[in-house]
Design a protein that fits this description.
The protein is of the alpha/beta class. The protein is 41% helix and 13% strand. The chain has a single domain, classed as Alpha-Beta Barrel (TIM Barrel), CATH 3.20.20.70. The protein has eleven helices and twelve strands. An eight-stranded parallel β-barrel has the order 4-5-6-7-8-9-10-11, surrounded by seven helices. A two-stranded antiparallel ribbon has the order 1-12. Keywords: Flavoprotein, FMN, Oxidoreductase.
């Protein structure tokens, strides 16, 4: 199966909202929720994508010719590539009838593990979503990162107990999902969390804790104060607050402020190996990619996921070679320009 065939098959499977576009830039599905679109005007997802396109690569091939090494170690776990599948949930609401959240995760988690990366998994109002995700992660030797929403305390503790038993690599909270339109005024309740509340949550679990949805230096510093091991620079794909800057725009200042004290992940409009290289050059340790993994899985199941990871990996290797970086650790800020 070729990647183009995966894309063509996906268009028949993703329902009426997602268009499985060749370039997923947020334009065809703007302001479409339910669906994969962004909130309000729909510019958030478009801005994320465009912010990566504005960054240029500095080519330098006057270098010693060596093998390319894309391996990274995060939380004492080795990965073949600095790529993670982003947490996606409410599959039937947003992407049609083909897969439930549980069925999606049952394919995604082992597919990512077999491709040398790992998946973040989503959460939902149905308790079975987290139960299914943690069961699948445990069955894959903990190779996944369950992402919990900022529920009320009792709901969080129940879900964190399941996560603890999964022996997952880490646990994440997409704290920005407090702004999702379809979560407001629902049960269980979800909302913003203070530093003190986060401290209590983080102390309750042994796995490294990642706070997803950080878009400012101030937010990154508060995440560090709360005891997080990592952050995801993310505006939830533009789905929670119209008018946010693109994630690429804020990454350099966040990196400058917190240095290496936290692992920095980033998502939002990252669509190619070149984009991944740019993110690493600007200070990220790894990237999360969301909608393209949905398309790949809906178009080719596990094989589709592998084809996407292989494509991104080859693009990253080619960019590294052409910019004079033969190891992920050799990628530096001066290899890109704004």
């Amino acid at each position: 199966m070729a990647y183009q065939e995966v894309m063509e098959a996906a268009r028949k499977n993703v329902g009426s909202f997602c268009k499985a576009c060749p370039i997923c830039d947020g334009r065809a599905c703007r302001n479409q929720i339910p669906g994969p679109g962004a909130k309000g005007s729909g510019e958030g997802a478009i801005r994320n994508y465009n912010s990566w396109q504005k960054i240029r690569l500095n080519m330098d091939t006057i270098t010693e010719n060596r093998p390319i090494n894309t391996q990274v170690q995060i939380f004492d776990v080795s990965f073949d590539l600095p790529i993670f599948a982003a947490p996606i949930g409410a599959m039937k609401m947003h992407y049609g009838e083909k897969y439930t959240d549980m069925e999606y995760n049952d394919i995604l988690i082992p597919a990512c593990r077999n491709a040398g990366i790992a998946a973040f998994t989503g959460d939902g109002m149905d308790p079975e979503v987290m139960k299914g995700a943690t069961t699948a992660i445990k069955a894959n030797q903990g190779f996944g990162i369950p992402t919990v929403k900022p529920w009320d305390k009792d709901t969080l503790l129940r879900k964190l107990e399941q996560i603890e038993k999964s022996r997952s690599i880490a646990v994440a909270m997409d704290i920005d999902s407090a702004g999702l339109p379809f979560l407001k005024n629902q049960m269980p309740p979800a909302g913003c969390k203070s530093v003190e509340e986060l401290k209590e949550i983080i102390k309750s679990i042994s796995q490294p804790f990642i706070i997803k949805g950080v878009m400012t230096v101030k937010g990154a510093i508060k995440a560090k104060e709360a005891g997080a091991a990592g952050i995801v620079v993310s505006n939830h794909g533009g789905r929670v607050l119209d008018g946010c800057p693109g994630t690429a725009e804020v990454l350099p200042e966040i990196k400058e402020a917190i240095g290496d004290s936290l692992k920095i992940f980033i998502d939002g409009g990252i669509r190619s190996g070149q984009d991944i290289f740019k993110a690493l050059a600007l200070g990220a340790d790894a990237v999360l990619i969301g909608r393209p993994f949905v398309t790949a899985l809906y178009g080719g199941a596990e094989e589709g996921v592998k084809l996407l990871v292989d494509k991104l990996g080859e693009e990253l290797k080619d960019t590294m070679m052409m910019c004079g970086a033969y190891d992920i650790a050799e990628i530096t800020r001066d290899m890109v320009r704004n």
